[in-house]
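Open question from group meeting: does this chain pack into something compact, or does most of it stay loose? Before anyone orders reagents, we agreed to write out a predicted structure and look at it together. Recording both the input and the output here so the notebook holds the full record.
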Amino acid sequence: MATRDETLTTDWKQITDGTQSVSIQVTSGTAWFRDSPTKPATNAQGHQVPSPRWLGVTPPQQMWGRSSGGEAKILIT
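Structure tokens returned:
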């Protein structure tokens, strides 16, 4: 998988589909991450990860991310 940049807002965005291992680096802001087979509810909280932290995701996790407010930028490899 090539490295890709993503900007997270307060809307949940699917990061992985459960078929691959990835590393996620929060490069700015604070992001919430949640393992879920479907899009989490708007008011659902997740694991809070501030920049400049890393998170590893492995199958079968289906990872979703959002910012804790405003925007959060992440790198996915």
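Observations to bring back to the group:
Strands lie at 4-8, 13-14, 22-28, 30-35, 47-50, 54-57, 63-67, 72-76.
The radius of gyration is 11 Å.
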